[in-house]
Amino acid sequence: GSGKVNVWGCITPNGIGWLYCINGNMNSLQYIHILESASAKPGYYELPKLYCLLTGYTKNKWIFQQDNDSKHNSHVMKNLLEFGISCIYVPMWPPSLPDLSPIENAWDYLEKQVKKQQQQPKNTDELWAALEEEWNWPSFSKYVKRLYESVPACMEKLLEAGGLWTKY
């Protein structure tokens, strides 16, 4: 097989952000470096830090959703998000709620698209190239937008079900 690559990606209601290949396992300092690198990449103003810092925008807070992984909740990361970037709101998030986490569905879709490719990746470099290619297709960005559009209906179904399982 092609092996395995670790990636970090950013998606927004307006479509995709940056996809970043991670060497080895990510720790909290590498995670912060990725966020800083992503926010400095030209054309990716969607990442809140860059937008907030360059414009001084503070009227509304951006919601920055991440799971409860230890690197996301490290002391350094919490300080950065709480004191370093004033226009970001990081809500408390349940440990496993894929229906309200568009990125989880996006990862699943991306994996399926790579598996559909006629020429399957033979190594990690080819796998990274295939992931990056699928990530940058306009159809993937449209899919991500539809995921965000589905969140209100999903929330309604979850509320109707008292927070229990839904077919969503």
Automatic annotation (TrEMBL):
Residues 3-127 form the Tc1-like transposase DDE domain. GO terms for molecular function: nucleic acid binding. This is Tc1-like transposase DDE domain-containing protein.
